[in-house]
Amino acid sequence: xxxxxxxxxxxxxxxxxxxxxxxxxxxxxxxxxxxxxxxxxxxxxxxxxxxxxxxxxxxxxxxxxxxxxxxxxxxxxxxxxxxxxxxxxxxxxxxxxxxxxxxxxxxxxxxxxxxxxxxxxxxxxxxxxxxxxxxxxxxxxxxxxxxxxxxxxxxxxxxxxxxxxxxxxxxxxxxxxxxxxxxxxxxxxxxxxxxxxxxxxxxxxxxxxxxxxxxxxxxxxxxxxxxxxxxxxxxxxxxxxxxxxxxxxxxxxxxxxxxxxxxxxxxxxxxxxxxxxxxxxxxxxxxxxxxxxxxxxxxxxxxxxxxxxxxxxxxxxxxxxxxxxxxxxxxxxxxxxxxxxxxxxxx
Length: 347
Fold this sequence. Notes:
Radius of gyration: 22 Å
Number of domains: 2
Distance between the termini: 43 Å
Shape: globular
CATH class of the largest domain: Alpha Beta
Helix content: 40-55%
């Protein structure tokens, strides 16, 4: 399949509202600090690289990939800084943000501006956010800062007040299908099926081309359905298995044991949420024993527990609480909606 490289901003069209806002930024520069918020797979990283290409490249919108553009895509340009969590770290530390501060304080080497992109910026710990405040409030001349995050809730109010918020909505199925076909070389049938099941997440849709991921997907749907219809022992066996499981789709990624468990759990939730999303619109059959709850209620419960994963709570505890809440809901015919804090306290 085709290897996709983000083009210049002018060539993207998956987020038209974002496109118009960023074009205005290019035409009328002024605001220097941005917070881009949107779900995984909504295009934030692609748009960040595309924007930097347009800012740095001197070859025009039709540039096929000059030396400057290649430096941007490889994240090696001297005026472009891409900050993300270090391997084995659960958060972005104050030392990392101070390093970005230092780099931005120097004049641009060859580009018209210096650009810092902080990926997973909601993983900055409070000290890192506080250390970054001065840069966000008074950014150096000829600099641009982009914070990328899935949600705004983990940021300090002082950070939020210093950034221009840009929202990236989940992508429509038609946009994902088009991207898979035109940018990644998928055939129509494959692209259509992946787009329908991805829930607006292009990153997830791309996984449908991975045999290991597809095997994982089939196993998770089968396992979780069976355990939720079975006994307490069935669920305990599933939880113990998933706590030790290292599925093939993880590959050779250098992750700690805790991180690997979190990745498996996150992926399993992603798969089971996708299955119940299909059940919501009639794209998948609901087992009779799981039909006593509305699909919307099951999805809400799954999402609530998935949101606990970034807190680095014990994976077994999250799954145990999910099982108890869903099993009780299927038995009663309704779910008791508890607050996030109540659930965290119980776990």
